[in-house]
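Example (one chain per record):
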Amino acid sequence: MIKSELISLLVERHPHLSNRDAERVVNAILDEIVDGLAAGKRVELRGFGVFSVRQRKPRLSRNPATNETVEVPAKKAPHFKVGKELFERLNRNYTGK
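Predicted structure:
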């Protein structure tokens, strides 16, 4: 699902919301998550999961086109750990086939 589909679904399920209001709500939630991560905070949505930032160490890599060794600098990367309720809902009727 993409953001515009989420907004349309919100408008469909909550007819009192206009498309513009639903878009503002979705953008506000996503902005708060991003702002929290940018500030180095952990963002927990109970039952859904936890967003956090992990530090990646600098490393040497290889450019596959030229076979040159390339230095990749240290960087921060977002990390998501699924919540128990979401995990259980995803795997409720899973048979492994």
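Caption: Residues 3-91 form a domain with the HU Protein; Chain A fold (CATH 4.10.520.10).
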